[in-house]
């Protein structure tokens, strides 16, 4: 392998149901900065069916080129089909770097590809930099967020990483920004595809917004406990037009679905206001929320570590305080 | 039906504390546990054993002390346990780890290969899919339910950001499972009493089918440049008071800030 | 000589610690507050095989040992002394005497269901006028054809009303005093057997403690446990085993209070430093820890002797005496270290202090333990 043969930063532009995912735009934003340092281009890979119209959006957010692989087989994400197409693109264009969002798709596809391309992969990065020797330095939390590690992949290409959603900043959209759109001919060896989608079930979302995009989060932990008590959190969230989230303990106990989990093994959030209710503040939780603008913690244990990151801490029984707070807020808003 | 479950012994990261003065990790006295997602995967395998009489093998790669998680697996109901251990495996990143495990798995017969989604010490979620690639198996990750449809097909529920998918895979295949989907059983007392009467097979490199250059530090494309503890944020105000007054304080801060 | 747990015992300890922390601890304050039997925990314990730990596999047990059993009671009591005594009374006072004294038919009939936890066990010896002087039994059993007819009252019976199998002591020949006492197996629901008043207690408030009333209660002749007149010996031997259970309970309570106090004194700050940095705290805590460890050695040593089938009567008495008095001392001081908070129900140490007291009283008061220890010293 000659490293000089590998050029440009490729971004897997994840779309689901014909919608570009926010993390794809965040990655393109970050890739633009890195590409400027390297003097290289940002190339987005857009896979799906009837998705060509999305290519221009990627360019307007900073992609210099979009490689579009549009085929009926790619309508739904299936590991093997996507892996074949992306590895064909990688073989043909020899990217120096490939970035994926650390989503359920990115974290399924990227490791499969790293093994296929026999190269390194760094998971769930929160920081990407270019070294003096023009290598990618990938920084990520480990040990439940207790430790940060900077990782490099100097002897193999492409350098690959999945990047945590909500961490990188997307660029402002530049309408009518110009770039190259290339159609990639899709050829999938279907004999190797041994998984098929039977049914896609969307969770009832109603007014549910992804917690990583919420402005206000009402988050509950072990101290809230039961499903019944969580209903009280939902009432508070409704008054504040907020979303409900939770710590790992509560998700592991099956009280609330996994997509609502904040923390190292869940999502990173940085809302304007974060309520940590009955959350003691294990490091792994703090890792996912400490960047929030204003943190209010309510906990029975006055020594809970959550107070080390909170702006306002209340020592008391969440299950008594929350209904009271909800009532008071209702009154405030009806004034 | 034969099921192999990959498990890992990890430090309980919930128990790791940071020295408030130096900001460094306190790792002393942190217990080693079976990785939660792996335990979830083992539970799913054991449910298939309860339901269909599947034979469940557990395998781990690690130092000799990792024997403990295999005994735990026996006490939960696993039938066979393999410990992959040796100097050659040390210093491996996810790719080299997946090569080592794949080397061992090539010598085993199975219909389902089950892993946890990710381990709480590294949180990478990479070894499962990388193994699947080496072994040329179909993979489904983020699995929260497994049903055997017929001799050749498994039907699983996969969680994703939008809800879930129902997928079918041809066996043999690899599934990575979520801890939150099941409450793993405790070891039962009779199982514990028998756990040390069973044999844990210790395998070295000589026992597996793999290119030695792909193992350990030299088989690892990624290298850790540096590791460091995160800085600490300065704490804010804390009030200990009755609920009425507490609510008053919260409301006043929300007004001061921006919300109401 | 070896003071380490075997790998099996150590694995067992890992399981029971996790089980206690996750399943039992969250209920401890509630069942105390509501004075409610922890049925949901009992069901979970049954599913894991905790009700037959030291019983051989052939009778449906787990085939473990008495050290494991002791660890189970200790770890449960560390978070909830009520749950600890449910297991102790069941195992030591019902499962054990039936296993040690039962006929093959009795063992086959009762042990598998007791071991699986489908049936819970209890033990009835104490009467209003027969406490420490157990020989003053007034309950009578008279053989009438193929049946024994029981009359009398038992009080302070642990697991009463929740148990299915009761080992009951009654006079079969008053003139023979001790030698006239016999043991019987009585099943719940037998006509003439009723559960009386439930006691309201200082501690272990979730444990069901009630009176048993026998009014012309007829049980099959085959339910005699051991020989006619052999009851007192069975009772004494059973209580030797029971003392390992109660000593383990006391040890668990003490350890629980110690752990809570270590945590609290490290976190609580006064005069600008944590309580744990004051030498007064350090010295007192060092003494308490030493006593807790000494209790543990006595308890494990008694359980080990029982596993070795040696005479452990005095060992169990010493373990119970020392562990119970240690539990009382540790919990009292734990409340003191917690100050005003310790006196409130916001912290578990006040409950532990209330729970600890009974360990100095039941299954032989501390005074009885001293009698047993002294008797072993001065015999002949």
From the N-terminal CA to the C-terminal CA of chain B, the straight-line distance is 61 Å
The H/E string of chain B reads EEEEEHEHEHEHEEEEHEEEH
Q: What portion of residues of chain B belong to β-strands? A: 25-35%
- What is the correct CATH architecture of chain B? 3-Layer(aba) Sandwich
What fraction, in percent, of the residue positions of chain C are helical?
Answer: 40-55%
Low-pLDDT windows of residues of chain C: none
Strands across the major sheet of chain C, in which order?
1-4-5-8
Number of helices of chain B: 6
CATH fold call of chain B = Rossmann fold
Structural class of chain B: alpha/beta
Major sheet attributes of chain C? 4 strands, mixed
User: Taking all residues together, what is the mean pLDDT of chain C?
Assistant: 96
Mean pLDDT of chain B comes to 92
Largest interface: A-B, 93 and 86 residues
Set down the secondary structure blueprint.
The complex is a heterotrimer of chains A (335), B (260) and C (380).
Chain A: E1 9-12, E2 15-16, E3 19-20, H1 22-38, E4 42-48, H2 55-60, E5 65-70, H3 79-93, E6 97-101, H4 106-116, E7 121-125, E8 127-130, E9 136-142, E10 147-152, E11 159-163, E12 180-183, E13 195-202, E14 216-220, H5 227-240, E15 243-246, H6 248-252, E16 273-277, H7 283-289, E17 294-299, E18 312-315, H8 318-334
Parallel strand pairs in A: 1-4, 1-6, 4-5, 5-12, 6-11, 7-11, 14-15, 14-16, 16-17, 17-18
Antiparallel strand pairs in A: 2-3, 8-9, 9-10
Helix pairs in contact in A: 3-4, 5-8
Chain B: E1 2-6, E2 9-11, E3 17-18, E4 25-26, E5 32-34, H1 36-52, E6 55-61, H2 67-76, E7 80-84, H3 94-105, E8 112-116, H4 127-134, E9 139-150, E10 153-160, E11 163-170, E12 173-177, H5 189-195, E13 200-203, E14 223-229, E15 237-240, H6 243-257
Parallel strand pairs in B: 1-6, 1-8, 6-7, 7-13, 8-12, 9-12
Antiparallel strand pairs in B: 2-5, 3-4, 9-10, 10-11
Helix pairs in contact in B: 2-5, 3-4
Chain C: H1 7-34, H2 39-48, H3 66-79, H4 81-101, H5 104-116, E1 121-124, E2 140-144, E3 147-158, E4 165-171, E5 181-187, E6 193-198, E7 209-220, E8 224-225, H6 231-267, E9 269-270, E10 273-274, H7 279-307, H8 313-343, H9 349-358, H10 366-377
Parallel strand pairs in C: 1-4
Antiparallel strand pairs in C: 2-3, 3-7, 4-5, 5-8, 6-7, 9-10
Helix pairs in contact in C: 1-3, 3-4, 3-6, 4-5, 4-6, 6-7, 6-8, 6-9, 7-8, 8-9, 8-10
């Amino acid at each position: 392998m000659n490293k000089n043969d590998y050029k440009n930063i490729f971004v897997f532009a994840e779309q689901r149901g014909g919608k570009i995912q926010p993390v794809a735009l965040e990655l393109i934003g970050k890739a633009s900065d890195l590409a400027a340092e390297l003097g290289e281009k940002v190339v987005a890979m857009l896979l799906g069916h009837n998705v060509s119209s999305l290519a221009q959006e990627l360019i307007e957010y900073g992609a210099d080129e979009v490689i579009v692989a549009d085929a009926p087989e790619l309508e739904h994400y299936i590991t093997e089909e996507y892996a074949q197409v992306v590895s064909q693109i990688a073989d043909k264009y020899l990217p120096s770097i490939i970035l994926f969002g650390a989503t359920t798709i990115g974290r399924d596809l990227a490791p499969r590809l790293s093994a296929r391309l026999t190269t390194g992969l760094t998971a769930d990065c929160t920081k990407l930099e270019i070294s003096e020797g023009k290598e990618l330095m990938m920084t990520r939390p480990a040990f439940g967020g207790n430790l940060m590690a900077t990782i490099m992949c100097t002897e193999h290409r492409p350098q690959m990483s999945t990047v945590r959603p909500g961490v990188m900043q997307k660029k402002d959209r530049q309408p009518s920004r110009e770039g190259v759109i290339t159609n990639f001919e899709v050829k999938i060896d279907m004999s190797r595809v041994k998984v098929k989608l039977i049914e896609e079930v969307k969770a009832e979302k109603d007014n549910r917004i992804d917690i990583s995009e919420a402005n206000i989060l009402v988050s509950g932990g072990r101290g809230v406990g039961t499903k019944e008590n969580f209903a009280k959190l939902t009432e508070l969230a409704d008054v504040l037009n907020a979303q409900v989230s939770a710590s790992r303990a509560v998700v592991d106990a099956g009280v609330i679905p996994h997509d609502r989990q904040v923390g190292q093994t869940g999502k990173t959030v940085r809302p304007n206001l974060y309520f940590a209710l009955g959350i003691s503040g294990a490091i792994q939780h703090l890792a996912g929320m400490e960047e929030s603008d204003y943190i209010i913690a309510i906990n029975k244990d006055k020594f809970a570590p959550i107070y080390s990151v909170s702006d306002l801490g209340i020592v008391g029984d969440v299950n008594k305080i929350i209904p009271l707070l909800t009532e008071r807020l209702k009154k405030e808003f009806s004034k | 039906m034969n099921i192999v479950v990959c498990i890992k012994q990890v430090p309980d990261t919930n128990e790791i504390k940071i020295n408030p003065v130096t900001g460094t990790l306190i790792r002393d006295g942190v217990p080693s546990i079976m990785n939660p997602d792996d335990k979830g995967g083992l539970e799913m395998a054991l449910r298939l054993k309860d339901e269909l009489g599947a034979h469940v093998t557990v395998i781990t790669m690690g130092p000799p002390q990792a024997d403990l998680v295999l005994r735990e697996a026996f006490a939960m109901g696993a039938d066979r346990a393999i410990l992959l251990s040796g100097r050659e495996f040390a210093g491996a990143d996810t790719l080299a780890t997946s090569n080592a495990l794949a080397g061992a798995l090539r010598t085993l017969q199975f219909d389902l290969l089950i892993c946890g989604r990710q381990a709480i010490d590294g949180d990478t979620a990479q070894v499962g899919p990388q193994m699947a690639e080496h072994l040329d198996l179909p993979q489904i990750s983020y699995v929260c339910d497994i049903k055997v449809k017929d001799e050749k097909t498994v039907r699983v529920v996969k969680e994703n950001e939008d809800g879930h998918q129902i997928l079918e895979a041809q066996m043999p295949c690899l599934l990575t499972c979520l801890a939150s989907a099941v409450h793993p059983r405790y070891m039962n007392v009779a199982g514990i009493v028998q756990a040390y009467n069973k044999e844990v097979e210790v395998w070295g490199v000589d026992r597996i089918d793999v290119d030695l250059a792909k193992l350990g530090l030299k088989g690892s494309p990624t290298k850790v440049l540096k590791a460091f503890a995160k800085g600490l944020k300065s704490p804010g105000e804390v009030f200990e008071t009755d609920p009425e007054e507490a609510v008053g304080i919260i409301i006043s801060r929300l007004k001061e800030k921006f919300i109401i | 000589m070896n003071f380490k747990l075997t790998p099996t015992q150590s694995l067992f300890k890992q399981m029971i610690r996790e089980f206690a922390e996750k399943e039992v601890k969250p209920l401890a304050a509630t069942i105390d507050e509501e004075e409610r039997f922890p049925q949901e925990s009992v069901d979970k314990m049954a599913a894991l095989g905790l009700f037959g730990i030291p019983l051989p596999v052939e009778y449906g047990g787990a085939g473990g040992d008495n050290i494991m059993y002791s660890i189970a009671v200790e770890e449960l009591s560390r978070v909830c002394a009520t749950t600890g005594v449910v297991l102790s009374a069941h195992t030591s006072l019902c499962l054990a005497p039936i296993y040690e004294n039962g006929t093959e038919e009795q063992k086959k009939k009762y042990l598998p269901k007791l071991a699986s936890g489908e049936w819970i066990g209890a033990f009835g010896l104490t009467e209003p006028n027969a406490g420490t002087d157990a020989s003053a039994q007034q309950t009578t059993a008279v053989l009438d054809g193929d049946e024994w007819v029981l009359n009398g009252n038992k009080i302070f019976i642990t697991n009463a009303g929740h148990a299915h199998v009761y080992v009951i002591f009654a006079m079969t020949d008053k003139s023979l005093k001790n030698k006239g006492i016999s043991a019987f197996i009585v099943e719940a629901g037998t006509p003439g057997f009723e559960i009386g008043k439930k006691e309201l207690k200082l501690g272990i408030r979730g444990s069901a403690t009630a009176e048993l009333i026998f009014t012309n209660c007829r049980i099959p002749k085959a339910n005699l446990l051991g020989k006619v007149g052999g009851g007192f010996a069975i009772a004494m031997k059973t209580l030797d085993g029971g003392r390992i259970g109660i000593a383990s309970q006391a040890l668990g309570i003490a350890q629980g209070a110690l752990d809570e106090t270590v945590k609290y004194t490290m976190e609580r700050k006064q005069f600008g430093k944590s309580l744990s940095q004051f030498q007064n705290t350090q010295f007192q805590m060092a003494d308490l820890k030493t006593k807790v460890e000494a209790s543990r050695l006595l308890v494990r040593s008694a359980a080990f002797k029982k596993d070795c089938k040696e005479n452990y009567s005095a060992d169990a008495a010493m373990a119970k005496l020392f562990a119970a008095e240690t539990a009382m001392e540790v919990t009292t001081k734990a409340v003191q270290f917690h100050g005003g908070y310790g006196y409130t129900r916001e912290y578990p140490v006040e409950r532990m202090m209330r729970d600890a007291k009974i360990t100095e009283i039941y299954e032989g008061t501390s005074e009885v333990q001293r009698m047993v220890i002294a008797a072993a010293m001065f015999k002949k």
